[in-house]
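Handout, section 3.2

Students often ask what a structure token actually looks like in practice. Rather than define it abstractly, here is a full record for ATPase family AAA domain-containing protein 3-like. The first block is the sequence as you would receive it.
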Amino acid sequence: MKEIEASPQPKKVFEIIKKREETRQAEFAGKAAEFKAMQAQAETERQRVIYDEQKKLAQHQAQTKSQMARYEDELARKRMQAENESQRARNQELVKLQEESSIRQEQARRAVEEQIQAQRRQTEREKADLERETIRIRAMAEAEGRAHEAKLSEDVNRRKLIDQANAEREKWVAAINTSFDHIGGGLKAILTDQNKLVVAVGGVTALAAGIYTTREGAKVIWSYVDRILGQPTLIRESSRGKYPWSGIFSRSTSSLAPGAGKGSASKTGNGFGDVILHPSLQKRILHLAGATANTKSNQAPFRNMLFYGPPGTGKTMAARELAQKSGLDYALMTGGDVAPLGSQAVTKIHQLFDWAKKSKRGLLLFIDEADAFLCERNKTYMSEAQRSALNALLFRTGDQSKDIVLALATNRPGDLDSAVADRIDEVLEFPLPGQEERFKLLKLYLCKYIAQAGSGKSGLFQSLFKKNQQKIEVNGLTDELLMEAAARTEGFSGREIAKLMASVQAAVYGSENCVLDPSLFREVVDYKVAEHQQRKKLGVAGGGGN
């Protein structure tokens, strides 16, 4: 500034300096623009480098993904191939096992067919033997009949002689009575007259012989009639009479009796008599009864049944009700009665089925304790007679019958012979009663053993010679108490509940005032429950010892 002021033309100098400064400023601006351009170019290059790096990274990632996909695809193909190989090996093994199983089944089928053929040949031989035995027995029976007829004709002639001798003896007795005053002379005349003595002795002897012969002949004839027309000895209980004419009077009186049409449904209110069963089981038995009745009316073959379950669960009573509701006759036998018959068992079995076929209404043959008679035939302890009896029953039940319904009852269904199981069409399990069923059973037997005790009407003869049963007074025995007893008697069968109420009756009769109150009832229930538990322990201990 001092130089400018000292110069002669300061204004021009200032202008020059100003222009120079402006030029420098322009240069600085140009350099700044150039720097900015270079900076922008560098930024563009950096962006391009970043873009190239990102592009390379994306390409690398895509290449990596492609390689991973190819690797996974290769692994999947290898895994699928390994699975296919494993599946092929399993299929081959399965085919091999199926072939072996089919071979075994074919072998088993051939063995069964051979066994069936052998059994069939054995059955045919036994059938031929039975036919020969039947022919022999028939011939013997005919010979015995002819002998009996000859004996009867002989007896008739003998009776005529005896009657003549009796008439002669009566004549002599009358003569002796009229000449009682001359008895001494008459006796002397008889003793001295040999002819009269012979006639008298002969008459007495003929009379004694006639009486003896008549008695023995009547026994023989009655045994023959009983064998032909009577009930088989294997039958323990039957709705049919022992003889064809014996049931006419009982059926007529039962039909004329008051309340005969109501049946036993009024006892429990369930339409099933004294049998208390689970509702589903009772429904099935009623269905079977209706089906059996329709089967009989349509002349179709009957279906055989198997009842299994613990003892005392109502199998026998249910069979009775089933026969009654289906309109069939009913017969009961026990499997344990067959073994003591020995060699006669086969004949008795055939007599039983011949007798059953004579029923015009159809017959339900109930075999209780069937496992004692129809067990597996390969058991070592089974005698030859039992095996023959089982074969006889199998022979008579080989075809479905239109006359006989076979009902078996057992506690051990697994012990039955396979041929017997093959003849069964319906299988019913009788379990132990539940709490509701136990409650109904308690009410039933309370009414039977307690409430109705001493209320029955007795006849004149019984009132004179038999002491009347004392009436029991019941105080405070409510349904809640019976339900409590039903809950405590878990595991009791129907028979055990009946015995419990019989024990209650005995305890009441053993008391002083013959009154049943809740305390006495609970005391007897406690005792019977403890006794049941002790029996269970003894049963478990006995089973472990075996």
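Discussion prompt for tutorial groups: The chain is about 70% helix and 5% strand. How would you have guessed this from the sequence alone?
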